[in-house]
Amino acid sequence: MAGERLLCTFRVANHLLGLDIAVVQEVLRRQEITRLPLSAPAVRGIINLRGHIVPAVDLRCCLSLPAEESGADRATIVVRGRDDAASLLVDEIGDVVQVVEASRERTPETVDGLARQLLHGVFPLQDRLLLELDLEEVLRVAYA
Amino acid sequence: MESMDEGILREFLAESLENAEQVERELVALEREPGDLKRIATLFRAVHSIKGTCGFFGFTKLAAVTHAGENLLGRLRSGERTHTPEMADALLALVDAVRTILGRIEATQEEGDDDFQPLIGRLAQLDAATTPAPIAEAPHADADSTSAGPTESSIRVDVHLLDRMMNLVGELVLARNQLLLEVAASDLAELPFTAQRLNHVTTDLQEMVMRTRLQPIGGLWNKLPRLARDVAAACGKSVRLDLEGAETELDRSIIEAMRDPITHLVRNAIDHGIETPAERTAGGKPAEGRLLLRAFHEGGKVQVEITDDGAGLPIERIRESALRQHLVSAERAARMTGRDWANVIFLPGFSTAERVTNVSGRGVGMDVVKNNVERVGGTIEVDSKSGEGMTVRIRIPLTLAIVPALIVTAGGERYAIPQVNLTELIRVEPSEAATCLPFAFDAPVLRYRDGLLPLLDLREVLHTPAVGDAPGRDEAVSIVVLHADGVTFGLVVDVIVASQEIVVKPLIEPLRQIAVFAGATILGDGAVALILDVPGLARHVGIGVRSGVPVAPEDATTSEAPLIPLRTVVLCHAGERWTVAIPQEQIARLEEIPRRSVERIGERALVQYRGGILPIVSLRAVLDLHGSPESADARWLGDRDPLPVVVHEREGRSIGFVVDSIVEIVEERIAVNASPAARAGFSGAIVVRGSVTELLDLERLLGSTPIGLEHTPAHAGKER
User: Fold this and answer.
1) Which of A120, B170, B238, B719: disulfide with B288, CB 3.0–4.6 Å?
2) Distance between CA B319 and CA B338 in Å, rounded?
3) How far does CA A8 lie from the centroid of its chain?
């Protein structure tokens, strides 16, 4: 059916977030992160992705969420931004979910500030909401 | 579809640019031999093919300009016209016009709205006129016109090189498969051999891949005849330019980086170095000056020499103005030789020019040339003989992708510092801290030789979290003395780990805003280390341009350096580009042993020596440095004859280490930085002649390898 898309989903704090699988390159377990001093706060450091140096972006920081609770099992999603690859730090990887573009709702007015700017839209699933991130916006904010 | 068109367009641009370059080259050559019909034919073909292809894209201006040039060249080719300097000028102007249009097309995909009618008219006039037409405007090649042209973004790679790389990748895959199998079967006995094979293949592959990026320096040379011609004409001088070693290869990015400095040096040599024909004849020299550019490989680097037979540097005047401008202290001046004075021209703010001409008086001084050269890890020096001319010598690395670096830690994190920026390693014991590390107000400074250096703490600069391995108050402090862009400062680090060659990986664009890092590298254990950008670091903390003490390496032995004891080390090449230092006290003798006197008993090599038997081994094999497959075999002794041998004695027994070559014996104030992470056989790192060198400890080496003085078991060499 036309307008169907696949989103790669993941959890950050208690939010279910998603990105179009077209921009997701791979999903990795927790990676060794080298701290990058003097960088923007959302850039946690850099990782070695088979010889490529890729920045590690802390999604919690981008979304103004409290820092991770200790022992949160973090995973890494490697994404292809418009210019370069980046990796996003998330709490947990979810399923790949099929959504219908027509069912996308605008981000509710009650979601405020930065987070609102970073969301592309909201898909109401059966039991919860799936928030789709705007990748370019996320990376722009993270590097700023 | 669009991308395919873009591809064709890019190809057209690259090809037309190459053709334009060829036209320029041939035109300048034609001036020397005006009747050379072969050259005229080549010129005609090159202009014709630009015209031919641009019709396909509908670039009418380009077509019109090249058409006019083609007509004129057609007449030349058929012999209806003879070549005149006016024609050369007009045709060179045509090359400039073609470059301008190509540059516009690259930027905007359009031809732009420059008006080339006057040029077309001039070409047509020359084509029709029986007498040469007056010159409307003299063509002038300046740096801007070449940089405005399209930049080449593709390179051509030798097919054989690709074949060999492919072959190596195949080997790499095999070695990996074998390794996986062995690990699965836990066949540990074979593991060292497989690891070694993997090591060799990887090293060779890295070398091959690096070589694909290399290009002949000829690409840069090509632009110079035209430049020399125009500059000489502008100064009223007659100059013959000779270019040698155009086939010398180095990395594209370095060739690009050398473009401005070399252009500047050529201008300078013609404008200031070579005299006018009248002056030359009066001085008994040929009226035509000679400018020679030579490029060649030496010791893993590329050397470029720019030699003119002009007046040489006015040493007296340099001395006067340097002293007047306080660029050199009177105390130091007393010790300086003529050659030292010649090199004063590289100090920031120095100028010898009595008059500023429009050719080289563009505010770009020799200090800028020096900075540009140093930025790519090169060095520059000048040699001058009054009345006979001068030579500028530039030494540059083959590539920027792999650089020698020093690994240090700060707050438990590892950082790489490029060796080009390194001056010295200093270790201050707690007992000396009060005298050597005084405070000026709150700013720590380092008492260094006869001056004070600003001191930075890497942990503070990078806001690293406090971690356990940071030395406490009562421990020795490790300081790395760094220089860049005329600034010298000390950097306090936690531990100096090792010196190694690193592969530079750029950071992605948004992260490059952090000026203190030049990139990142992946260390042997897979961890990532950031590479410090020393000039960026200095700017970041606001160390002024002139606040540092000018560093003159020749001062090292003459000035007082109370902290550092005088030591003698022998520098040897253990591999092609690998220099190690051996403390003199561990060496009994240095010998040269003819190959024919080497005898073999099984796996061991022996020579009869001083009435006894001396076992000899290849140092390279023992260290297994950058091994070619042969070097892994202890029987392999290199290919020199006689063999340079370092003889070591212990408890009345001797062993000879065969090295690639013995470089020199150095007596300097050398601070040894003992490092817990030093590799087996090494006791630390020292700075000799401006670069970090690992200090070998032969005692330790013998302790850690089975190659002993005693009865060596078979295969000992292989198993290290």
Assistant:
1) B238
2) 9
3) 10
| Residue of B698, B697, B712 whose CA lies nearest to B600 | B712
Least confident range from B166-180, B245-259, B408-422, B466-480: namely: B466-480
Tokens of B542: 């606001």
Other C-beta atoms lying within 10 Å of the C-beta of residue B506: 12
Q: Looking at CA atoms only, how far is residue A59 from chain B in angstroms?
A: 17
Beta-sheet strands, E only, within B150-238: 214-216
3 state SS of B2: helix
Q: Is the pTM of this model over 0.90?
A: no
Do the Cβ atoms of A48 and B526 come within 8 Å? Answer: yes
**Interfacial residues of B (vs A; Cβ cutoff 8 Å):** 413, 462-464, 505-511, 514, 516-517, 519-520, 522, 526-530, 540
Report the residue of A38, A62, A140 to disrupt the B interface, i.e. the one with the largest count of B CBs within 10 Å.
A38
Residue A34 to residue B529, Cβ atoms within 8 A: yes
Number of domains in chain A: 1
CB A105 within 8 A of CB A122: yes
Contact assessment for residue B645 and residue B593, using Cβ atoms and an 8 Å cutoff:
yes
How confident is residue B450, by pLDDT bands cut at 50, 70 and 90?
Answer: low
Domain spanning B566-719 has what CATH number?
2.40.50.180
- Please check whether residue A3 lies inside any domain of the structure: no
CA distance A108 to chain B (A): 31
Q: Is residue A4 part of a domain?
A: no
Q: What architecture is the B216-395 domain classified under in CATH?
A: 2-Layer Sandwich (3.30)
Q: Which of B370, B245, B378 is nearest to B301 (CA)?
A: B378
Contacts of A143 in chain B (CB under 8 A): 510-511
Separation CA B462–CA B113 (nearest Å): 51
Q: How far is CA B644 from the centre of its chain?
A: 29
The radius of gyration computed from the CA coordinates of chain B, to the nearest angstrom, equals 30
Task: Judge whether A51 is closer than 8 Å to chain B, CB to CB.
Answer: yes
Range of the domain at A123: 25-143
Candidates A38, A47, A53; nearest CB to B507: A53
How many CB atoms are located within 10 Å of the residue B177 CB?
Answer: 11
Q: Which fold has domain B402-557?
A: SH3 type barrels. (2.30.30)
Best probe of the B interface among A43, A52, A53, A139, by most B CBs < 10 A, is A53
Q: Do B508 and A55 touch (CB under 8 A)?
A: yes
**Ramachandran class of A56: left when φ > 0, alpha when ψ lies in -120 to 50, beta otherwise:** beta
Spatial separation of the C-alpha atoms in residues B170 and B204, rounded to whole Å: 12
Task: Judge whether A8 lies within some domain.
Answer: no
What is the domain-level CATH number for residue A88? 2.40.50.180
Closest partner residue to B528 (CB to CB) among A38, A48, A86 is: A48
Asked if A34 and B413 come within 8 Å (Cβ–Cβ), the reply is yes
- A46 in any annotated domain: yes
Residue B505 and residue A32: Cβ atoms within 8 Å? no
Residue at A46: amino acid letter: I
Of B462, B528, B540, the CB nearest to A34: B528
pLDDT at B143: 39
Candidates 1.20.120.160, 3.30.365.10, 1.10.510.10, 2.120.10.30; CATH matching B2-147: 1.20.120.160
Query: How high does pLDDT run on average in chain B?
Result: 76
Q: Tell me what the mean pLDDT of segment B208-222 comes to.
A: 83
Amino acid letter, B719: E
Instruction: State how far residue A99 is from chain B, nearest Cα, in angstroms.
Output: 31
pLDDT in tens, B66-87: 888 888 888 877 777 777 778 8
Q: How many CB pairs under 8 A join A and B?
A: 64
- Measure in Å the smallest separation between the Cα of B526 and chain A Cα atoms: 8
Nearest CA of chain B to the CA of A71: how many Å? 20
Q: Measuring CA to CA, which residue among B296, B316, B312 is closest to residue B304?
A: B296
